[in-house]
Amino acid sequence: MEFHVYDTTLRDGAQQEGLNLSVADKLAIARHLDGLGVGFIEGGWPGANPKDTEFFRRAVDELDLKHARLAAFGSTRRAGVKAADDPQVAALRDSGAGVVTLVAKSHDRHVELALRTTLAENLAMIRDTVSHLREEGQQVFLDAEHFFDGYRANRDYALEVLRTAYEAGAEVVALCDTNGGMLPTWVADVVHDVREHTQGAVGIHCHNDTGCAVANSLAAVDAGAMHVQGCINGYGERTGNADLVSVVANLQLKLGREVLPTGLLGEATRVAHAVAEVTNVPPAGRQPYVGASAFAHKAGLHASAIKVDPDLYQHMDPAGVGNDMRLLVSDMAGRASIELKGRELGYDLSDDRDLVTRVTDRVKALEEQGYTFEAADASFELLLIEEVEGARPSYFDVESWRVISEARGGGSEAASTTEAIVKIHADGVRHVETGEGNGPVNALDQALRAAITRAFPVVADFDLIDFKVRIFDQGHGTDAKTRVLIETSDGSTSWTTVGVGANVIEASWEALVDGLTFGLRRHVSEPTPSEAVVAE
Ligand SMILES: CC(=O)SCCNC(=O)CCNC(=O)[C@H](O)C(C)(C)COP(=O)(O)OP(=O)(O)OC[C@H]1O[C@@H](n2cnc3c(N)ncnc32)[C@H](O)[C@@H]1OP(=O)(O)O
Ligand SMILES: CC(=O)C(=O)O
Q1: Helix ranges, 76-137 (H)
Q2: CA 174, CA 71: separation in Å to the nearest integer?
Q3: Which of 243, 225, 172 is nearest to 12 (CA)?
Q4: Rounded Cα gap, residues 261 and 259, in angstroms
Q5: Which protein residues touch ligand 1 with a CB less than 6 Å away?
Q6: I need a labelling partner for 40 at 20 to 30 A (CA). Which of 161, 388, 410, 508 fits?
Q7: Gap between the Cα atoms of 511 and 513, Å rounded
Q8: 397-523 domain in CATH 3.30.160.270?
């Protein structure tokens, strides 16, 4: 049998706390999964809720899958009814999916306590449901729920469940570590035993409660499993399911098993992030292979070796999974980090040792004051430009700014307003603008952008999309130093700038001015000559 990569993001992944997918979300994710080349997409449980039923109705018409087959998930028939008469089995049969994955109990205690039926009736439920769906022309897989725990409690019965499913026509039985409590050697031993004492293809479905879901899946494959289930980004109930990208990347890149169509593993980072956009769950930076930090290097010593050969500090070429190497600039940087970061930004600094040293020293000194450049690439680039070109880019000169916050009344009746006045010079003209906002930074942002837009209309397209304040000398109370990070967008890209000060408004102002300056540098060719920046 050909190896199966089976994705259950739309079913088991959707069981994650906080994840709630609409039918449109599910269709969008299915298209992304197909773009990665998975063999099977489990779309949900038709009949369990209107959304999943609707998903299958639309998927059959709207999804033009190139690589994947659609699988419908659901349980075996209820005790005491015929499979053909069970409405849940009917929903699976009528879902339009070519594949049905049945969940069945394989742990004797679950049969008796959860199903409240006999061990023999559970076997009959499996036999009848598999045969019925096979007779209806569907390909049937069986998820043997709680298999590893069931095997420990009653090996003979757990194996009997598998034999019953195979004999009735199940093409694969996936052994489920439903409670996620297994370790790799335990999984391998059980899979070996199952293969020795049953006849049929073995699959694996692991949860991550011991942090071993990926390792357990690989151990099962090493022991002979030919079908591996998992979820994009490791989504799933509790601590999640095996991260399918990690499993597949390990199989292909480390173990030499081509389990995806040629070339598609290079889509992994794009797909993982695109799915995260749809789920609205922020992607984990430290996720193996596809995380933004998976190939990010901070330590100066790492950068100095990477300058010679990236392989010295990377386990693989990030391009293999569609990711990129990134250099982080911080107080842990050395000259090599600055040189490589410069190269990443398009500046060749290799011939100017003094400049690189100056930048390194400035970064370390500023980080000591509280600045952080690894999170504020745009502020670093402005600093670098200042050293490379001899002056910081400047498109406007600030004459003064002022913020007034006023509160009227007290308690729950209190109403507050904030107004800012900004005076700047740009293109030889003095601009005075006011802005109102729900707080001082919002009001300043409004006023500053209104003033600059008069000289540079492109600024109207800029948006402040994120604002983070952090107090970093805790214990000083209200006179503590603050760091402000501001993310600005021009609609297609975004950049982050940093400001630091004892006064949160001054720190915000610094980050705001840098944010707009950086945006103008991208969109406007020639800066006007710089003059002194004065804050009132
Ligand atoms: C390990 C897993 O993650 S498996 C996937 C689990 N996913 C879900 O549960 C999400 C979708 N589930 C649902 O929407 C609902 O639970 C439904 C529609 C399936 C069932 O809802 P209800 O009919 O209200 O039953 P309820 O959820 O309270 O209990 C589950 C029933 O299924 C039975 N059942 C559980 N597993 C199986 C099985 N493998 N085969 C047959 N019946 C089963 C239980 O015995 C219980 O029966 P009971 O109603 O006679 O007590
Ligand atoms: C079927 C399934 O999701 C499990 O046993 O974990």
Answers
A1: 87-93, 108-110, 119-135
A2: 14
A3: 243
A4: 7
A5: 45, 48-49, 75-76, 78, 103-105, 114-115, 125, 145, 178
A6: 161
A7: 6
A8: yes
Proximal ligand: closest to the CA of 74: 1
Ligand nearest the Cα of residue 143 is 2
Decide: pTM greater than 0.90: no
Any idea which residue has 């693989």 for tokens? Answer: 316
Radius of gyration of the chain (CA): 30
Contact call for residues 238 and 180 (beta carbons, < 8 A): yes
- Could you tell me if the CB of 250 is within 6 A of ligand 2? no
Nearest CA to ligand 1 atom 11: 48
What are the tokens at 99? 């594949």
Ligand 2 near 206 CB (within 6 A): no
Q: Are 404 and 505 in contact (CB under 8 A)?
A: no
CA distance 13 to 7: 9
**How far away, in angstroms, is 265 Cα from ligand 1 center?**
36
- 166-175, 191-200, 262-271, 402-411: which range is least confident on average? 402-411
pLDDT tens, position by position, 253-287: 999 999 999 999 999 999 999 999 999 999 999 99
Confidence of residue 525 (pLDDT cuts 50, 70, 90): low
Nearest bound ligand to CA 114?
1
Residue whose token pair is 């994710």: 29
φ/ψ of 334, rounded to 5, equals -115, -175
DSSP state, residue 32:
H
CB 105 within 8 A of CB 146: yes
Give the separation between CA 285 and CA 328, rounded to whole angstroms: 14
Looking at the chain, the number of H-run helices and the number of E-run strands are 17, 16
Interface pTM, i.e. ipTM: 0.94
Q: Which CATH superfamily is domain 4-279 in?
A: Aldolase class I (3.20.20.70)
Atom nearest to 12 CA in ligand 2: 3
3-class DSSP state of 77:
coil
